[in-house]
Amino acid sequence: MRPLRAILLETSGQDVRRCAHCAFCDSNLAPDMDVTFATLIQMVIMDDEEVLTTRSLWSDEALKSAPHLCANQLNLEAVMLALRGEAKKRGVKEIGD
Fold it and tell me: Taking the domains of the chain in order of start, what are their residue ranges?
């Protein structure tokens, strides 16, 4: 199976290696999130497929705040949507269903 980072780059155009680990995105943690945005990105970089089952990935509140949270212009909304799409392809049920 292809690495999640490569899938994201192909489907969303976002290269998660651009993450500067500045913790700017950690300033917002919605109540239904179990991991921070920075952790989501690190999970993708490490090709940890558990990222597809995090509550954070499926949080609509997190998705709404994502476009404003990266100081390095990484489109976190596009990353989340691409990860959701990949999760569905792999048969992962949306958290909350």
Answer: 4-89
